[in-house]
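Exercise 7.
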Amino acid sequence: MLANKTIVLGVTGSIAAYKAVELAGKLTQAGAKVEVVMTESATKFVTPLTFRSITGRKAMTDVFEDASEHGVWHVAMGEAADLVIIAPASAATIARLAAGICDDMLTLVVMATKAPIILAPAMNVNMFENAANQENLAKLEKRGFAVVEPEYGRLASGTKGKGRLADLGKIMAAIEGALGGSADLAGKSLVVTAGGTRERIDPARYIGNPSSGKMGYALAEAARDRGAEVTLVTASALPEPEGITVVPVETAVQMKRAVAKAVTKADALIMAAAVADYQPKTAAKSKIKKTDPSLSLELVRTPDILGEVEGNFIRVGFAAESENLVANAKKKLAEKKLDLIVANDITAKDSGFGVDTNKVTIIAKKGKAESLPLMSKREVADRVLDRVVGMMGKKK
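Solution. The predicted structure, written as tokens, is:
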């Protein structure tokens, strides 16, 4: 998503400026070409040399310094930018942007660009909540600027309140989401499930599996970054991703209800969750005491979510297998009347539960199986979504 993208990173005079160094590193590692533009105040907190060492490119601070590489630098960068992110964005810079004042390098670049612009404010809580600042932010949002809200926490002044720079993960998600706004899933609605369900035995115990939910979250984030409106029904404890409607559940029954509600207007359902196959027929209301040498449980089948949820949408299932990978996956594909199934061998190294990589075989209702090499779950997610996109418009 970020590879070969030109990202202008604006850094303003805030104590949170040091966090912009890490953000520049993350963007660079993701393959982006990062052009850092600093206000004069920002240089009091962190040096241009620091950013140059991270991005490999000179950080610009002065409108009149040598910019022969780009000619009229602010115009060239404004035109070349795929996205402008100002993090941290100070109250002063926000005010100048709202007023249309361009009196430094950063505001000149903003004035000269037609790229998406994201602001990540960071300041004292009283400054952030000040009516003038709120009016300025509202004015900029009305013009199309996106704002990543600051977080509550301890501030540089020693007080607590809303003003801390947003988590860098949220800022990265906002960047990826903005760049995906015109992608191939724009205007589409996807429902993704993730995590392993927990079927209660008693208040202290449950039947479950080791699924972390990482594959489902990768699918949800990839769909979001490709422009889709995403609902994530999750039984995972992973942090909520930015820009996605998250519906937390625990059991298979709860997941079925949430999915049935979410798919009413969905274009596709991707069931990446590891739903428990069985649940106790009855769950004890209080903790079962360890008084007997053995414990017998009567188990019943959990709902077949993919098979029972109705609607005219693309259905994608996952098959976590330990043997006969393709044969078992094809059987599930037919039985559940799926359009696509993604199978992986959970006994294979780096392809089971809880890891960041996966090695899968994608099988469509029509066509032969496609075995993919070991890759990150995000890469797998995009390969699966490539297939889903190919089916869009063909579903009747």
